[in-house]
Fold:
Amino acid sequence: MNPVRPLVNRYKPVWRSNRVKNNLAFLKVRSNRVKKSFFVLAMICLAGMAWGYEVTFKEKPVKLPINKIVPLVFNVGTVDLAEIGGQKMHLVLVDLDLEMMFHCFPAADAAGNFSQDVVFPQDGRYLLYFYFQPSGQAPVVKIVPLDVGKVVNKFGTVRMYLDNEKITADWQAVRFTTEPEEIKEKTEINFTFLVAEMKSGKPVQNLLPYAGGGAQLVAINATQDIYLQKQSVEQGLAAYGPELHFKVIFPKKGIYKLWLEFRSKKKMNTVPFTLQVK
Structure:
């Protein structure tokens, strides 16, 4: 199995270049200033065990090295899992600054153990979001913190610039609109993304299926205690584009970092952007 390497700072200049002066927002979480961080971390630690499901590692991941392959082997107990987007297990890993993210699909063996090789590119605390669905039940999210190398700050500093309607990365330009235009908590928001080639501006018609649909949208709030994952409404087609559609309900106010994931004939694409939910 080829290890999955997180994307580190790859898109940082891109989504910062799209910031709007009037929409500049910073959220700084510091261990010596914000008591709330201790409560958030405690809730994150408990999230891996609560509500009848526990993420159990075959070997406890301690003293993890950087820039080396780290095999993660784990299970969530003896429970039948339904597929979400064609996969029984989704694993999303982020750093505390939300500067990097990778999304992978751990493989399961006959005993129900999942395995995934990863490479951690730098020291620090990471958060692992396990997303799965027990058969006949609603999807479950388990959040597990993981320390790699020397950890100086266990709470991180999240700096987010709010994006306007245009986001770019590599060869494609992505524009998005929302309906309703103002994004409010506990309200269904319809996202429409239009994917085009960067140089020509030509709409991309040949997007390929990814994870059971046309695309995936992952969202994590700035305090990192809320995780959302949605499939695009386009499903069952051999090709998609240039539009991708999502329906999302944000459970509470705040700033969210989102990643749009889609496939093209050229490669897999991950486009990050930031929104404020009112």
About this structure: The radius of gyration is 18 Å.
